[in-house]
Specification:
- About 0% of the residues have low confidence.
- By secondary structure, the protein is an alpha/beta fold.
Length: about 425
Amino acid sequence: MHHFNYKNGTLFAEGIDLDQLSKKVGTPFYCYSEATLRRHVQVFQRAFGGANMLTAFSVKANSNIAVLKILASEGAGADVVSGGELKRARAAGIASDKIVFSGVGKTAQELTLALQENIHQFNVESEPELNLLNEIAISLGTKAPIAFRVNPDVSAGGHEKIATGVAEVKFGIPWARAREFYAKANAMAGIEVKGVDVHIGSQISDLAPFETAFKKVAVLVTQLREDGCTIDRIDLGGGLGIPYGDSPVNPPHPDEYAKMIRQIADPLNVQLIFEPGRMIVGNAGILVSKVVYVKEGAERQFLIIDSAMNDLIRPALYDAYHNLIPVKEPTTNERQDYDIVGPICETGDRFARDRDMPVLKQDDLVAFMSAGAYGAVQASEYNTRPLIPEVLVNGDQYCIIRPRPDYEDILKRDIIPDWIK
């Protein structure tokens, strides 16, 4: 569910007319619905019915501090994958004891920062990382609470680039060596073994791979406890998908997801940690763009819009689908197939091919739906296009929570050495 609907022939974000908002903000821009953000995190947490759990929102999905602050006010923590994301989470008021640190390439500087912040958990992904974390923790006179991210070799995810639980990807430690790794960690002076972490992919629309992976984790927890490890947490990652409009199959409801997990995890008496991202913010955001030209090709019609792959890279990167609708509700049934493209000088700057759309004309506004996750966070200034702004809506209020820089802001960041005349 989301709060983007037509009213009197115009698309609204909650109580805000997006046609009028575009005149004030300029296009393209991202727009987020606070009501949708709050509803999604509430629905997810209610599904677990008071279980001992931590909802560690995946900051990489949407790292705007205003968004993080909304989720923090609903009791959510943060799953971070860099020192910068850790800083953002703390700036949003997320308590250190609600932060878990994931990722395969944590640097010494980042590990030190996280230890100094006294975070809830490090999700360790390799033996070299374990050794470095142990050394730093000892030097600081502390212990690092850890879970190993174990790779269960379970295939899941909507695209090969977002499947993370199969064998021989960069994530996690091999399943066959898990007990060996835990035994080593349990003997280290700077390490405190706390749990097991697993994350099998993103945009998953079926409970079966989750269930397969989580049952394997439950067996491992029992084995590790027999080996003398204290395991009182399981981090089950994220990955639950959202409907983008390109598939007749809708992802499971959080209630179904929670029921399956509770059946597996309740006998273990552990804290459950989750890292939802897309399912919280995906449908809470849209990208509003304007038609620049309608170009007649030899055999195709091109809808050239003012947003590009530097603003929303998912279609170019993952062949991702986003439903695209006019901001002005169509008044006729006239349709046209368009190749929807942006102004970047790359053939890959294409959002859709042969997309059946209402007939559109120059200066019409369109909205990419389900764009709240992995949209603004992956934006760039390629072709020296100003970074796309973000707008938050709350009822009939709006705030620009990341402004669009002007060209002077962009150019002044470049420094010309003195020796160049």
